[in-house]
Structure formats: structure tokens, C-alpha cells
Amino acid sequence: MSDSPRSPRRPLSVVVAGGGTAGHIEPALALADAVRRLRPDARVTALGTARGLETTLVPKRGYPLELVPPVPLPRKPSRDLAALPWRVVKSVRRTRQVLKAVDADVVVGFGGYVALPAYLASRLPGTRVPVVVHEANASAGIANKVGARHAAAVAAAVPGSGLDGPVIGMPLRRAITTLDREALRAKARAHFGLDPDAPTLLVFGGSQGARSLNAAVAGAAPELARAGIGVLHAHGPKNTVDVPGGDAAERSSTARASTPPYVAVPYLERMDLAYAAADLAICRSGAMTVAEVSAVGLPAIYVPLPHGNGEQRLNALPVVEHGGGVLVADEELTPEKVVELVVPLLTSGERLSAMSAGARRTGHADADETLARMVLEAAEGAGGTQR
Question: Is there a common fold for 13-172+366-381 and 175-361?
């Protein structure tokens, strides 16, 4: 809590710092929802930047958003690295203003551009707010490593993050953790214009799509159609897919009985329905993707990003080791590889059932409330408001 006097009757004030990408924002919002369920009078404020997805996602979920200057952390010597100290000072100053304005009792950080200034501002004299850190990835980022040094509590989504703390899983929306895929299947397939009975492949590469996934699956379309497999393909708003053998939209609209539709869309607004419609997914293995796909028990072929520090491969490994998925290197994903993997899987109900069970074994449906209780305990331990 801050050093200023507090009214014992005022509501708990929680600040979540998880801006930038959906992988940081979604768990922050899931945590916010859980805090509000446990403490309906709590005030939750989100920190973000003007250029992140939070400017859209946070207001949609009904939470106030306070903008702070971003602090990207360059990994190589550059002009950005030289400007880093001033950027940090500017962002910390603004973040401290927010913490004092909302009379914060606790800061919850999820990594990313806004987490570092939140961690630093919480340590300043006159502020002194306890911090809880959640690490989503199998390899902790720089911001969370800094925050964890003085955190009241640390938690991780998967083992091996490098931070000391319990593995609780990824906080997810209740629409995902309570999803009954079987019960929603007919509605979901009707929503997307898919064949109601054909085995269905879901393809997505994050909010912006993935060109290698797009090319490989689109190239495999004729063989998938011959095998009686339908496809729901989110290719990204800036991408298109060229499906051999005819225009995907035309095939979807005609929904010819002899060929299950190949439905190509720029973006999936209803991921819950997409998961319910599918029997198998081909996707990247970002932390949020792996957490959601495994939580709903959807078997998956994970194709980690080919660059970075290899964390996407590490994210998927626990699911693969439990039999819930298959790992394929990006450079190995060709149309032929898609056919080789997808057709046998989608024509074997027994194998899919076993993979679904394996995926669910790695899921943590209650991570949101587990983290929320850690947050409440941190605020109580700092001598915050009466509960």
C-alpha cells in the first residue's frame, strides 16, 4: 500500500499492468474479473500504452484504462538503448501519478512494456505498493525478472520460467474455462457456415495471422477436401489465403455436400465458438494460445515461431509430453506435412479423444481465482483496507 493515510472503509484498489499484446492483456483482464467476483466492491484499473491492443480490449471489458509511456527493452545496442534511461524515468513518473490517483493497494504485473515502470514506481518513497508478478511464458522476460526481486508474491503459468513461485497456470476468461465444446458444436459450426458433421480443422496464427501456416494449410486444401475435412482458417487481417481448386468464400457459401467448406476469415471474434467447432487445431504456441487450447481440451499441432529465444517451443512441451499435441518446426510445415499429420488424426476418433484428455491434464481452469487470492493476500499483508 502507499505511505499516505487510508480510509478503512474504502474499496480495495487493484492496478493491473499487462499491456501491449493479447498474451499480456487477456490474463490481466481474467484476473480483474476474478478479483471482482471475489470482491465485488474492488476497483480495478488497467495500465497500458496508446499503441497497444489494450486501448480496444480493456474498455470492452468495462475497466478504466490509464495510459503510460511504453518502455520497450532493446536487446541490442541501438539508439533506443541509449534513450532507455529517459524513457524509464518518464514512464515511472507517470505510473506513480496513476498509483497515487487511484490509491492503489496492490500492483499485479504480467510482463510487457507497462510492467517495468509499474514495478519501479511501486518501490518509490511515498508510493510503496506491494507487487504480485505473474509469468506466462516458459522463459521469464526481463521486466518480470526485475519485478520478482521485490515482489510480495510470484506465480508462473508453466514450470521452468526461472522465477521462484508456484505454478498456477494461465488466468483465462470464464467463457473459455467453462466451455462445453460438445454442447456448442452444432451452434458453432452453423455460426461459421461449416459442415455440421465433417471433421473440422481450425487454423490460426495469433491476432495477425501467420504466413507460413497460411501457405501450408491453403496448399493442402485439395487433399483435405478429398479426405472429407472442413477447415476454419483465420489468416490475419493483413493476409489472404489462396486456396487451390476454387475461391474459399465461394466454396463456403455454396457448402456443396460433396466437399466440406473451407471457411477463411481475417479474424475470429468468437474464439469460444471456433474452439467448439473444431476437432483439431494448427496454431502457434504462444503462452495464451497453449493455455486456451489445452484448457478446452482441443488437440493441436503446435508450430512455434521460428525466431526469438525458443520460448514458444517450451510453452507447448508440457502439452506435447502429456499427449495433447504435436510439435512441428516452422520450416517443416509444408502442405505435404499438413496432409500427413491432419488426415490420420481427424479420421481417428480414438486418437483425438486421447489427445483431448492429454491436453486437459495440463490445463488450470482455476488459475484466475488462484491468482486473485494471492493478490488479495498481498494487499492484506501490506496492511491495506479492512476486509
Answer: yes
- Tens of pLDDT along 198-218? 999 999 986 555 889 999 999
pLDDT bucket at 251, cuts 50 / 70 / 90: very low
CB-based contact 135:154 (threshold 8 Å): yes
Whether residue 132 is predicted with pLDDT greater than 60 in this model: the reply is yes
Euclidean distance between CA atoms 98 and 121, whole angstroms = 10
Report d(CA 80, CA 84) in Å as an integer: 6
Beta carbons within 10 angstroms of residue 323's beta carbon: 17
| CA pair distance 28, 5, nearest whole angstrom | 28
Q: At 199, list the grid cell.
A: 471433421
Q: Which CATH superfamily is domain 175-361 in?
A: Glycogen Phosphorylase B; (3.40.50.2000)
Q: What are the helix (H) ranges across the chain?
A: 22-38, 54-60, 79-82, 84-101, 115-121, 142-148, 174-177, 181-192, 211-219, 221-226, 248-254, 271-277, 287-295, 311-321, 335-346, 349-361, 367-381
CA proximity to 172, closest of 44, 288, 40, 47: 288
What letter represents residue 50's amino acid? Answer: A
CATH (residue range 13-172+366-381): 3.40.50.2000
What are the residue ranges spanned by the domains of the chain? 13-172+366-381, 175-361
Tens-digit pLDDT profile for residues 100-121: 999 999 999 998 889 999 999 9
Q: How far apart are CA 188 and CA 276, in angstroms?
A: 6
Least confident of 1-15, 47-61, 109-123, 140-154: 1-15
Phi, psi of 155 (to 5 degrees): -140, 155
Residue found under cell 499484446: 21
